[in-house]
Specification:
about 160 residues; alpha+beta; four-stranded antiparallel sheet; 1 helix; about 25% strand; elongated
């Protein structure tokens, strides 16, 4: 076994070949620069992805609320009324909408409604519920005869 001093020389006076380990300053600067570029691009990616997620989540919550209203109507034996406001849904059931998501309730003729009712026999107020944010749009169709809820996603949003 050879003893090596702090200067890298062996005791016999011959220089010892050392292995280099670690990163150079230039390599570290390149990695930091890449990380800065990626972190600056993250808000732009989130800004595009989040509106679509909020529209999808609001649509799913509305579907669940209408199903809950159907169940509640049957359990109570009387109609359940859902009122739509800018910030959310109130009435027999309540639901908050994200502040940036727009929800509009319209009847079959395209006239704006402020409430819909679900009846114990399975019928409901026929309505279209438009959920939108920026370029993202989903439409819920509530059948007046069957009370069935279907979701329409425009072809460009798929």
């Amino acid at each position: 076994m050879r003893a090596i001093s702090a200067t890298g020389n062996s005791r016999r006076g011959a220089p010892c070949a050392r292995r280099q380990s670690g990163f150079t300053l230039m390599e570290l600067l390149v990695v930091v620069a890449i990380l800065v570029l990626l972190s600056s691009a993250l808000p732009l990616a989130l800004d595009r992805a989040l509106p679509g997620r909020r529209v999808m989540a609001t649509t799913q919550k509305l579907q669940s609320a209408i199903r809950d209203a159907e169940s509640l109507s049957v359990a109570r034996g009387r109609p359940v009324r859902l009122e739509f406001r800018d910030s959310g849904m109130s009435g027999d059931l309540s639901l908050q909408f994200p502040s940036t998501t727009r929800v509009v309730l319209k009847d079959g003729d395209g006239l704006e409604l402020h409430a819909l009712s679900v009846y114990p026999e399975g019928t409901a107020t026929e309505a279209n519920i438009f959920v939108s944010e920026r370029t993202h749009l989903r439409t819920l169709h509530l059948s007046g005869v069957t009370g069935r809820v279907t979701v329409e996603v425009p072809a460009r949003a798929r």
